[in-house]
Amino acid sequence: MSSRLFAISFDAHQPERLARFWSGLLGLDRADDLPDGVALLSGNDAGYRLGFRSSQARKAAQNRLHFDLTSSSPEDQRETVARALDLGARHADVGQGPDAAHVVLADPEGNEFCVLEPGNRFLAGCGFIGALACDGSQAVGYFWSQALGWPLVWDQDEETAVQSPKGGTKLTWGGPPLMPDPGKDLHLDLAPDGDRQAEVERLISLGARRLDSAHDPSGAVPLADPDGNEFRVLADG
Q: Where are the transmembrane segments (predicted)?
């Protein structure tokens, strides 16, 4: 048994507005199957959606999870940055320095993302959304590899990465130390392939923990991975 990565979901104060930003930036179509939010079809070989769930959480620090967008040429990189700024993004300083070849931006609700320079061999062939780059331990990379059934494609110096056997976006973890909880972030929504309760128990056996105090109105089961990042197992697989 395993889970499918159903959606990478943003905490959003204005889900519709944030979905329009990302739809415009990435050229994505609307989906209607996220039980408690707005969803876009990622068009990515990894087969997930982008979700936007209503949340009143306040952003207190840099996100632990962010997208790395790829570029095919310097002109393509500049065009992506210009389009993002026209749609309401802003430049962001996360300590990258003035000589960085990648461009760090924040969407209209402050979620950081990077537009990478062309020639990134590690993300070659991964698509426009090359990576979901996560702040996290080696152990959490191992956890998500087992949880999703995605093989490790990088495991060196406490940095890990996994990728769907079908290809597409890589999930990467940069190793310690962990950044503080930002309060408002991106989260993974899983759809179980089979009995949900059995899948919840399997994820717990791998190192997840139940968030018993959390209530999800959609009926999803909220859990936390070994680094304490909240994720959900959706009600319908």
A: none
